[in-house]
Amino acid sequence: MDSKSKTQNPGPPEPIERPEDASHTPAVDSPPPASRFTFHVSRYLSIYAALWRNSVTRETMFKANFLLWIVVELLWFGLQLSFIAVLYLHTDQIGTWTKWEVVMLIGGSHFIQQLFQAFFLINCTNLSDLVRTGKLDFLLLLPVNSRFVISLRQVDLGAFVNAASAVAVMAFAARQMHLVPTFLQVLGFLLLCVAGITIHYSLMFLLATISFWTVRAQGIVWSYYNLFNIARMPDEAFHGVFKAVFTFAIPMLLVSNVPVRLLANKLTEPGPILLMAAMSLACFVLSEWGWRASVKRYTSASS
């Protein structure tokens, strides 16, 4: 076959890759969103596990301090129960709350407070020192969410022991009332406890960010901590402006009253549950706004 016939019968043409065809084949395969989410969750869990190991090491170095604070908290818890015992020598009910219902309320309040103390209290109170000494610079440069590290870098292990004592008191009060909560009641109680802890953490963290504007803010933070005592009292003991303030502005009366009301069959409508969920979300959003606004005006102490 001569060259002319080859030209007339060239055979099937070679496929030509068009630009639009190449665009459909990415150079690097990106992981799906589910894989990225799983990666971030596992990464933060590993970071939090490392923070826990550091906290355990620190507690083992100061065993006497660890045991002392457990004893102090137990004595304070016992003092509150003794106060209620004396109070009910002179009355049968506070509103619609009987003696053992109030004992359960104090136990629930102590349970929420101790879990908050275990995870967040020391970290919120230390934010002022981080700002004042310039140690916050190092935390802001870490390749993780800075609020996550600042809020969870230390764990108070002794508070878990005190939380267990609160559960024991609640179980004893339930037995005295011949109360056997259902699984859904217990689950709802735990979820509402999480909402209560979120309220405590968000408001205290928001107050701690005042340290970006002032030299020290521990006094303001600890003043809020002292308001925890209000959460131990039945909401029906308060009226008027005081009750409105500590229900909507500073929702202390929601934190423990709503979870214990659910557990003790004292809730007749879902309104308080929805209000508590809304307040926990609102408090967290407000604290996040305050945190971001504070970081924007932060000037390194080393500059």
H/I helix tally:
14
Provide the gyration radius in Å.
28 Å
Task: Quickly give the structural class.
Answer: mainly alpha
Q: Compute the number of strand runs.
A: 0
Descriptive account of the structure:
By secondary structure, the chain is mainly α. 71% of the residues lie in helices and 0% in strands. It is built from 14 helices and no strands. The radius of gyration is 28 Å and the shape is globular. The model is unreliable at 1-8 and 13-25 (pLDDT under 50).
Short description:
This protein is mostly helical.
Provide the descriptors you would attach to this structure in a database record:
303 residues, mainly alpha, 71% helix
Strand and helix map with partners:
Blueprint: H1 3-8, H2 19-23, H3 33-61, H4 63-87, H5 99-133, H6 136-141, H7 146-152, H8 158-176, H9 183-208, H10 218-226, H11 240-249, H12 252-255, H13 257-263, H14 271-296
